[in-house]
Amino acid sequence: MKLIDIFLMFCVDFHYVKLVTGKPINTTVTLQPEHPFVGGNITLTCSSTIQRWPEAYKTSHLSYQFHGNTRGSTVNNKLTLHALTKADKGTRIQCQAIDDLGKVSNMSNTVTLDPYYGPDNVIVEPAVTIINVTEGTALGPIYCIATCNPRCIYNWEQKWTGGFNPFPNQYISNQGRGVNVPAIHRSQTGTYRCRVDHSTGSVHKTKDISVNVQYSPKITDIWFSSDIQKNRVRTPATFIFNEEENVKMTLRVESNPDSQITFKSSLLNIQHINKYNRYTYYTSNLPSLKCEDSGNFSIQAINGIPYADTRTVNLKIWCKPRNATAESGTIGAQIGSIENIVLHVISFPKPTVRWKRVTGFTWKIEKERYDYRHKIYSKIRIRSEVDFGAYGINICNLLGCIVENITLKPQDKPEAPQNVSVVTITFRSVNLSWIAGFNGGLEQTFTVQFKTINNDKWNVLNVHINDVMTGSTIYYTLDQLRPDTSYQVTVVSTNLQGQRNTSLEFKTEVEPILFSRAPPNSASISHLMVGLLCGIPPLLVVFILLVYIGRRNKYSKSDLKEKNVKSEKSAEYTTIQRNNPTFTDAYSTLQSPTGTKLASKSIKDRTDS
């Protein structure tokens, strides 16, 4: 304070003392805390000083006024703002002090509010909770974004056993905000965490994202077991079991995601039994398999990631012999022949074969393309009729036996018809008969072929007859023959093996001439009828001629005149039609006068006759 401002005058008149003073000075405003956070409170304190002379004469009282604040509560020299917001950023606050004499200090210093906040709105881009990535491909970039005042500090961590550890720096980019792994490995599967710290270090937030590294499946082990073979066989090259066994297969597969298992191109109903250390164990009952299914089986694990893993195992499925097949169970044969007997049989393991009837021949066995299929063959010699009939074949292996039968029956061309003869004969027909011979073991049919001796053309007639028995007599009639004519006839018996025939010749009888004597009365009646029939036509002709002559004389003049007119018109018409190209010559000829005359002459000739 200047000395002039504190000059005091004392007057003793009437015991009165007068005080001389100046306005408040050194007004300042401070805030606590110095760096408040959004949501917190802040207190601003206004301070000022004042001097009076004499110093201890009387205490001064100051009041305070804050400027620039639109809210908050003031108590004495303190202004408190509650629940700061981001909107408070930039608010400028000053204060002034006022003494009890009403003197106002100068404006204090200015305090600008800048509340801290964050990290807020922490997000990870891409905005997903899990990222599926194929092993060997790039992961990222994954970005972490947050809002802070002042700046945010970013750190990436990966979850390992026991907690989160810092992610290697070589994969961090963009001032710690991004993660980019050029070729990710399955071991890098897990939870990735972005930790955002406020620059003061007092506040942090996190955001997690799961990274699922997928890779193609790999079948590491295969076990087979059955209700008979309890001990599991691990990854066998060949597994042998019977058709009746229920076989279970267990797989250990390294796969992410889990695999579907196909067995011989068919999807299996798989059960997950456990999952340990990236390995998944699957178990399934194999489908019902037959002996014919023996061979190499492909077991494939597929999970949608290139590439599927395929393992091959050889399964040998044993069965007792079955399906012994030949071209025919019945074989046609001839006496004196040797018949080759060939069958194909399913048997695993290889069968043994023997005849149940003495043949003098043994069986030979050959494996075909597959281990379970075999060709067996032997021979039978037909010396006489007793060698025909059924032959049993005993086929066995370790699991059982079956018996198959082959039947040999005679098979040849039919015998020729026997005793072909003429039963009756007339001038128009002949009745034949013959005895049916042996049919050769097959159904036989008959045809009759005949022709005249002097003709080369044969007529063929089928004989329709059912259930022909050997030795039965067959009758057949040929009719509509020529009288007094020599014929050659052949009776043919036919089956699938061929035909045989027997021939004969015969001659039809002479056609008889019939004479009949009539009674006297009938003769006279016949003569009268003949006379009437012969006389009526001439009388009728004479009558017609008389009528015609009379009519002709009556109309001769008028007809002549009319005929001349018509002739002129006809000639004119003929000329016109001949000049018309749309008419044919034949039509023109019919219309010509010459043609008309010829037609008339023809009619006349017929009338005269």
General description of the model:
This protein is 13% helix and 46% strand. It folds into 5 domains: 3-112, Immunoglobulin-like (Sandwich), CATH 2.60.40.10; 117-321, Immunoglobulin-like; 326-410, Immunoglobulins (Immunoglobulin-like), CATH 2.60.40.10; 418-507, Immunoglobulin-like; 572-609, no CATH class. The strands form 9 sheets. Strands 11, 13, 14, 17, 18, 19, 21, 24 and 25 form a 9-stranded mixed sheet that branches. The chain is mainly beta and 609 residues long. It contains 4 helices and 41 strands. It is found in: Membrane. Residues 583-609 are annotated as: Disordered.
Quick overview of this protein structure:
By secondary structure, this protein is mainly β.
Question: Which features characterize this protein?
Answer:
mainly beta; Immunoglobulin-like; 9-stranded mixed β-sheet; 8-stranded mixed β-sheet; glycoprotein; membrane; disulfide bond
Strand content: over 45%
CATH H level, superfamily name of the largest domain: Immunoglobulins
State the CATH topology of the largest domain.
Immunoglobulin-like
Calculate the mean pLDDT score and round it. Answer: 81
User: Helical amount among residues, as a percent range?
Assistant: 10-25%
Oligomer state equals single chain
Shape: elongated
- Under the CATH scheme, which class of the largest domain? Mainly Beta
Q: What is Rg?
A: 67 Å
Q: How many separate helices? A: 4
Helix/strand/pairing class, anyone?
mainly beta
Q: How far apart lie the N and C ends?
A: 185 Å
Largest sheet properties: 9 strands, mixed
- The total of beta strands comes to 41
- Give the low-pLDDT segments: 1-16, 520-528, 554-609
Per CATH, which architecture of the largest domain?
Sandwich
Question: Can you tell me the number of structural domains?
Answer: 5
